[in-house]
Design goal:
The protein is mainly α. It has one domain: Tetratricopeptide repeat domain (Serine Threonine Protein Phosphatase 5, Tetratricopeptide repeat). It is 66% helix and 0% strand. It has 10 helices and no strands. α4 packs across α6 and α7 runs antiparallel to α8. The radius of gyration is 17 Å and the shape is globular. The N and C termini lie far apart (35 Å).
Length: 200
């Protein structure tokens, strides 16, 4: 078994179903904010996250599945393990470089559609309008390729990408990160944060 397989099995489930089946089973893990899940992530994969952040997993990114697993370690798990602290974003710059390498090699096209989502989310998390636009384009392509019964799921992913893009186009950053990162909020950002759905 490859070193990254236990992580992918935990993240996507060991029994591969349709994208909708996987999402229904795992979305509470992916997008829920539960202390128990955060603690489980740290207990099971905290050591690997530290290795990824220290750039010590060189052999992983030689394969599309290993590349995806490393992206999850850099982009998703720090947001769980270090939730609501500046460390939650410590892997972002590495993840952005790594995702570009894989996209250039076409590795995303070798992943299942639901797996591709977690490569493209690296771009969606970036406080950079060009990367946001790239994320929207990739999610739009993913939707265009989806089977009819999967279109609602991938339309939701595209909707979130477009919402993220609009925030970056307006502010150049995510205002909901300001307090965590010690950044002052402008009056416009403070007004925005009072709006429903402004915090992703």
């Amino acid at each position: 078994m490859n070193a990254w397989q236990p992580l992918l099995d935990w993240w996507f489930g060991a029994d591969h179903g349709t994208a909708s089946e996987v999402a229904a089973a795992r979305q509470r893990l992916w997008f829920g904010k539960r202390d128990s899940q955060d603690r489980e992530a740290e207990a099971r994969f905290g050591a690997l996250v530290k290795q990824a952040l220290a750039d010590q997993l060189h052999g992983w990114a030689q394969d599309p599945q290993g590349w995806l697993a490393q992206l999850i370690l850099l982009d998703q798990l720090p947001r769980m393990i270090f939730r609501d602290t500046p460390q939650a974003f410590d892997g972002d710059s590495q993840a952005r470089l790594l995702v570009q390498t894989g996209l250039d090699r076409g590795w995303d096209r070798q992943l299942a559609p639901i797996q591709r989502v977690f490569a493209y989310l690296v771009l969606e998390h970036a406080e950079d309008l060009h990367m946001q636009s790239r994320a929207v384009d990739l999610f739009r392509a993913l939707l265009s390729e989806a089977a009819a019964e999967e279109r609602a799921l991938f339309a939701d992913f595209l909707d979130f990408a477009e919402r993220h893009q609009r925030v970056i186009a307006r502010f150049g950053r995510f205002p909901h990160r300001n307090a965590i990162l010690g950044r002052a909020c402008s009056d416009d950002e403070q007004a925005f944060l009072r709006e429903p759905g402004s915090r992703f």
